[in-house]
Amino acid sequence: MKCKTVHKKLFLYIDNETTDSENVKINNHLQSCENCKQLYYDLKTTLNIINEQETLKPNPFLYTRIKQKLDVIEDKRKQNIFVPVYKKILQPVLLSFLLIVGFFFGIKIGNTYETKKYEDISLKTELYFDDFQQEEIEILLLNE
Amino acid sequence: MSDKELITGILSNDQKYFKNFVDKYQLMVLNTCNSFLHNKNDAEDITQEVFIEVFLSIHKFKETARLSTWLYRISANKSLNFMRDNKKRKIIKSIGNFFYGTENSELQIPDNSNDDAENKYKQNEKIKLLHKSINTLSKNQKIAFTLSKFENLSYVQISKIMNLSLSSVEGLMHRAKNNVRKKILNFYKRK
Description:
The structure holds two protein chains of two kinds. By secondary structure, chain A is mostly helical. Chain A folds into two domains: 3-52, no CATH class; 62-112. In chain A, 72% of the residues lie in helices and 0% in strands. Chain A has seven helices and no strands. Chain A has helices at residues 3-14, 20-32, 34-52, 62-79, 83-112, 131-134, 136-143. The model of chain A has no long low-confidence stretch (mean pLDDT 83). By secondary structure, chain B is mainly α. Chain B folds into two domains: 1-108, RNA polymerase sigma factor, region 2, helix turn helix motif (Rna Polymerase Sigma Factor, Chain: A); 113-191, Winged helix-like DNA-binding domain superfamily/Winged helix DNA-binding domain (Arc Repressor Mutant, subunit A). In chain B, α3 (40-57) packs across α4. The termini of chain B are far apart.
């Protein structure tokens, strides 16, 4: 049996899930190959940790702690008894109402104030600013 | 007190029955959670969560199923959810540590006074390697592997807990063992 094949079968070999003929081949290989033997040992000791896992002891205060948490949940539930009604019904209704009011209010404001059309704004009405009139000294100097 | 009596009692909101139920099953739930989480404090926290879930949803329990099967299922799901959330918390914490420095800056000096220090170090390394190898498995492989190896449950029991066929569980276990083997052997080959 090749090293690669042995590596593939190692977990099953440790779990006694290999056939008798495979067991013989793997045994023979492990006796002749130091590298595979070391890997087998490493894998086995690592997997053995599963069996060594500490069994936890019961906690005498567990029920009291659970009861405390359940009481908190119950209190919250009582406090929030109207929240679903508000969230599921009142909130969307209020939001839709505000949107509709806002929409019509916008139309109303838009109709109340009329803006002047572009043609009405004549250039004649605009006074050009003639700064020469303000600068008498400059005119005087120019005339001279 | 039988499971049926316990369930009827809890449904009638009798605290005495719920206390008996917690006392009867806490060891099983606690150790199942510990098999997934490998941490006593976390396992105790999740055990509380499991019993709270049971209390709040006992009316959904079908009497045709076994109570222990239902408890194993809740314990496994709660533990895996906790692990997933914990992973997110660790990532956020590591980002925080990157920008603001590590919170735990105390220098940890290994206790070399003990002759077994090296052995302990090697043992811890193996424990970490095993847990890391299991944690890299997919959700279903992890549940099947943990329940089979740590809780010594049969494939038939696991198939009932996971709501899968026996052949699916066998397939999951085969792949899980292969993946764990690969991870462990790769680690030792690189050394």
